[in-house]
Amino acid sequence: MKNIALSIIAALGFALVPVDSTHAARKRRGPSDEQVAIMKAAMPKKATVKPKKPRKILVLSYQSHDQGRLAGEKALQLMAGQTKAFELTFIYDTKAMAEILVPEKLKEFDAVCVNNSTGGGGKAANGKTLVENLGDYVSAGGGLIGFHAATDNKFGEVFGGFFTGHPWSGNVAVKIDDPDHKLTKVFGGKGFPVNDEIYQFAKIYTREKLRILLTLDMDIVKKRGKRADNDNAIAWVRKFGKGKVFYSSLGHNPKSFMDANLLRFYLDGIQFALGDLEADTTPSGPLKSAGSVMVDPKKLLADGYVSMFNGKDMSGWIVPKGDNGHWKVLDGVIDYDASSEAKGSKNLVSKEKYANYSLHIEWRFKRATGLFSMPTILPDGSYKKDANGKVVKTLKPNADSGIFPRGYGKAQMNLWCWDCGSGEMYGIRLDRKLSAEVRAGAVPKVKADNPVGQWNAFDITVKGDRVTAVLNGKTVLENSQMPGIPDEGPIVLQHHGGPIGKTGKFNPASSLVQFRNIYIKRLK
Questions:
Q1: Are 435 and 409 in contact (CB under 8 A)?
Q2: Residue 139: in which H helix or E strand, if any?
Q3: Residues 6+ apart with CB under 8 A from 136
Q4: In this structure, which of 46, 332, 419, 485 has its CB flanked by the most CB atoms within 10 Å?
């Protein structure tokens, strides 16, 4: 009876597999007694909803990621025992998986769980590929559950995404992408820190087919991945034919199976996949950004605009002398890391000068660069003060850049994370020599910025000494005056802040920024 690959785990969570050398070895590699005690204390005591009928889950837990996989096995056993929400059957090797992943045996289960296991590229006993049989099973109404390496696997085709690397490992921040979704209610709308290995996805991954629940919080996380849109999902649900799918990329670190909120989240996801807990699977749709108000470049060209950036090189722009490659073209956009080595001005300047014009420019911050002591700008341009007359400041995530109309720094239109929104003209707002009306006109009428990491579209019209600016479809400046602006000048994209010595950290008002789709139309 040794080397038994198939073991049945009853609802109480006790393994019926014989205690042979293989089982003993698994126990040694698995979670410690202390970790198991933490799991037990954090584990939900009852199911979120009563199962509609006795439920059975087939768990494929056959290779890779030993610590996380074995911790996941234990967590599932404890969850089954304490909640009575399902029974478990475990598969521990690929040979047994090939035998059981066929239609006549799969129909005995309400769901399949791929627990932190890679591979999945072989054939089943019926001659079809494993992924074909799994896809047919889910499409016909079976549930599918996955943790971590389940997408580092041919099965990613059914889950809805393929692993393409893990740039992040260690302490990171998780964002609740869909705080109103039934499965994320446990988090109360608040993001949270985790210590884990975080995947990035490509190929078939798309919000057009998935309901994204959790993402990596790119406002906080410093390191960038390979995705230009910084859309790094951590958990999602989807419909696949008639079946329901729940996936979480957490689980490399056993700690991700020891947190009470995450364990409830997993339980809810499992009950969703089983068909007991109803939850919305409507795809999230395109990443929420300025996409809906960005203009088709073809329409701009047809309307008389010309391109200021070809997406390939910096022709048309003057890169600061001595910059040393910090202003650069990356994946078709102008990318800046706030680290220009130029001795003088570090700004990027257009070669041509312009008088009256309409400018379309899209921009985004790659991430916030730290917590900035941020005052509140009132509609008249002054700062909010407390009862003692002291300016009220709050530490908030920030990044900073700007656009200078006609190269006029005093009228720089700030791109930043302040509460008043981007478009504010700092130098004009603070010039006490100017009238109250002019200074108030330098304050955005509304905050129209998209979140850090997402693209924004600015449409700026300059005529004489007046400017109107529309950000993401909303007018933020309307016929605002720019006293002292020259009759013509270049378009300037601002450097701000930068590294703090050799600490690896940035000033909390630094321009980790990108620009794209820059078009301009000269006006009379």
A1: no
A2: helix 130-139
A3: 103
A4: 485
Rounded CA-CA distance 137/131 in Å is: 10
Asked if 131 and 139 count as a contact pair (C-beta separation under 8 A), the reply is no
Query: pTM (2 decimals)?
Result: 0.57
Q: Which residue has the tokens 């009928």?
A: 53
Beta 356-365 vs 243-248: how paired, if at all?
unpaired
Reported as a single tens digit per residue, the pLDDT across 426-459 is 999 999 999 999 999 999 999 999 888 888 999 9
pLDDT (average), residues 5-18: 34
In 10 A of CB 425, how many CB atoms?
A: 29
- Write out the two tokens for 143: 């549930």
Nearest of 238, 239, 243, 221 to residue 230 by alpha carbon: 221
Higher pLDDT pick, 235 / 188: 235
Of the candidates 109, 65, 67, the one whose C-alpha atom is nearest the C-alpha of residue 86 is: 109
Radius of gyration over every alpha carbon of the chain, rounded to an integer in angstroms? 28
Summarised one tens digit per residue, pLDDT across range 98-132 is 999 999 999 999 999 999 888 778 899 999 999 99
